[in-house]
Amino acid sequence: MTASSAPGGSRRSENDAARFTASPQLARALQQIVVDLVELHLQGKQAHWNVVGHNFRDLHLQLDQIVADAREAADTIAERMRALAARPDGRSDTVVATTTLPAFPEGELSVSAVVDLVTLRLRTAVDTLRTRHDQIDGEDPSTADLLHAIIDCLEKHAWMVSAENRSV
Fold it and tell me: What is the mean pLDDT of the segment spanning 83-112?
């Protein structure tokens, strides 16, 4: 029985279900998000290893959570790209060449400096997500929904980390 001969015309033939694939523009937007999330993960780990000073332990542990969330978010978006027949590129050369995050300084850094550096990087990654969101939502609202959750997570981290350097 074909779709036209099925009662109500609702049954599809095996060839009717087309696969949604990302346009080149959608793939580029998602690639930018992936590289920024990979870089956020790497810079968070660099900060985690090299933070020193008062409240070191609390920030050290908090950075581990940020790193885990950035890594999971990168994986979520990269796997979404694959589901849409796009190919993510997380190679270190690609990440370094295309990330929008500023380079992270080397060496030991004070808790206060790391708070400011990580807050800026979280906000930069969120800016990439927000900048690309409307374009992505126009083509693929399902992927845009994934971005909402990542934005919420990273903005919460930015708020919590930045509070360390605030006083009343």
Answer: 97
Q: Give the 3-state secondary structure of residue 105.
A: coil
Could you tell me the pTM of the whole model?
0.89
What is the mean predicted confidence (pLDDT) over 74-83?
98
Can you read off the two tokens belonging to residue 100?
Answer: 């929008």
Quick one: three-class SS letters along 116-127? HHHHHHHHHHHH
Residue with tokens 């050369």: 93
pLDDT at site 9: 67
Res. 168 pLDDT band, cuts 50 70 90: confident
Nearest CA to 39 out of 10, 79, 73 is that of: 73
The pLDDT value given to residue 76: 98
Q: What is the DSSP string of 66-87?
A: HHHHHHHHHHHHHHHHHHTT--
Specify whether the backbone of 22 is left (phi greater than 0), alpha (psi in -120 to 50) or beta: beta
| Interatomic CA distance for residues 18 and 12, integer angstroms | 11
- Please name the helix (run of DSSP H) or strand (run of DSSP E) that holds residue 1, with its range, or none: none
Residue from 118, 99, 119 nearest 43 by CA: 118
